[in-house]
Amino acid sequence: MIPLCRSSDMEGRVWCRRMKPAMWYLMMLIVGFFYVYLTAIQYIRGQQALQDPPSTYLKQYDPQYFDESLISPANALTFEYHNYTTMTDFLRAMSATYPNLTALYSIGKSVQGRDLWVMVVSSSPYQHIIGQPNVKYVANMHGNEAVGREMLLHLIEYLAKNYQTDDYVHWLLDNTRIHIMPSMNPDGFEVAREGTCQGGQGRYNARGFDLNRNFPDYFKQNNKKSQPEAEAVKQWISKIQFVLSANLHGGALVASYPFDNSPNTIFQQFTSTPSLTPDEDAFKHLASIYSFNHGTMHLGLPCKPGAPAFTNGTTNGAAWYPLTGGMQDYNYVWHGCMDTTIEMSCCKYPMAKQLPKFWQDNQEALVRYMGEVHRGVRGFVVDTEMRPVEGASIKVKSRDVGFQTTKYGEYWRILLPGHYSLEVYANGYDPAVEDFLVVDTNPTLLNITLYRASPEPDALPSGPNNHHTPPHSPPPSAAVPTSNPNASAIAITLFFTLTVHLVKFYRLFKYFSDRVSHHRRPVFIGGPAQSQGRPVPVHRPEFRAFSPPSRTKSPAFLIFSAEFSIASCPSIPEP
């Protein structure tokens, strides 16, 4: 205990009073109470604030809110190759110029510490609009295949500048969230050389790994050590439910689609055979959309004598040549994203003077391909109380590669016109099957209600991915914590419960304190008693801990009590 001393009378005697131990414990309890309370509130309500866009940005595009003067001549986009520094400067300038159409973020870093930039282009770049699908483009996966890198920079500029003047671009950005990664291998690009059409200089990352052989494979075990760039992409697509994607390469002129690999067979080493997915018709359609909107790809001409020719400019990946660990198969099997590989140029790293012709050939194809995300079926999966069912497994009947709902219960699937059945499975619910029709003019909206499973929810049927389930399925795509709808009620109950215990605790200490202070008297130091040679012993209390009786219902706090030996303390003489 700490003495509190002050002058108390005309004779200069100092009167000291010791602070009650219960007050110290009470102060500590109050501080701890509010700390626990605030921590509990944050835990119960979740971190919903992290999902909100920055307050400095408008949620919707204001046609008057952009300033092209922010793009200086040094940052203006020209038909030349941009290294990491100039590419970063351009992306930042575009984000500053069109803050309500673009949002720049990084999904991670390369081996040498360069950011893997992604630009969102949408009329709502910082906030997901429920029901709006996500599309992505990834380029420069092989560092020496540089045309796709420049095409995506020009695509970003084209979409932002033509939002108000092009009706199709306006519709696309109002209804789609477009994620564009110009370079997945910025380290490789820095060592590649312009004008090199073949060879491997710059193809690999800084550790010498081919990033398009670095993903889990459905058909074969991939034992290659996972690289930072591939890990960043895997985390990225596990958090955002992408519906449609394309990976831009160079070295040929063709649109390739899954599967890139096939099961081990005795004849595989001698011939390449197609490895078809359950969605073969949809993939061929997507590849054809790009090919026939391209300036020359649909002609299917070989790049050089002896090179393969591709009918309509499209091919099955494994039929061209099989590979293990490709990114497009991983997107499709693991996450249900329809992904294709676009080979944009016969020369991997052509001279910059050819870039205007490449942009002329690819501009319409890049834009029209993204619009195909609005084909097929879409909707929501909810329970009987209209609450979204997150992570429900969905598949189209007879198509064994499934997909999942988002945390809002959303789902999308690209399908060609026809009659289909949708099968939905979710833990704790009875499975549901719905028939529907897909037409060519607009997507079919199909909402599905799931009913709670009766008596034994553990006895559920096998999931929809029983044939094409990857060996290590990722967690649901929604990784951001959600808020608890009963957070306020829980918080109020917690507050009153802790308050009741606080009052009980205080009364208990007050009881012990009153018992002691009833017999205590002030201790005077330096008074006449000491001047007469009679020292005044100052009694110091002893403290010991004890546990409350087992029958009490109070919380198991450690209570401290002060025990004073009143009888051993001599009386203080009168002055």
UniProtKB/TrEMBL annotation:
Top-level taxon: Eukaryota
Alphabetized Pfam families for the sequence: CarboxypepD_reg (PF13620), Peptidase_M14 (PF00246)
Transmembrane segment boundaries: 21-44
Residue ranges that the Swiss-Prot or TrEMBL entry lists as coiled coil: none
Protein name (database record): Carboxypeptidase M
SUPFAM superfamilies per record: Carboxypeptidase regulatory domain-like, Zn-dependent exopeptidases
Region (Disordered): 456-482
UniProt source species: Chionoecetes opilio
Cofactors that this protein relies on: Zn(2+)
Catalytic residues, chain numbering: 343
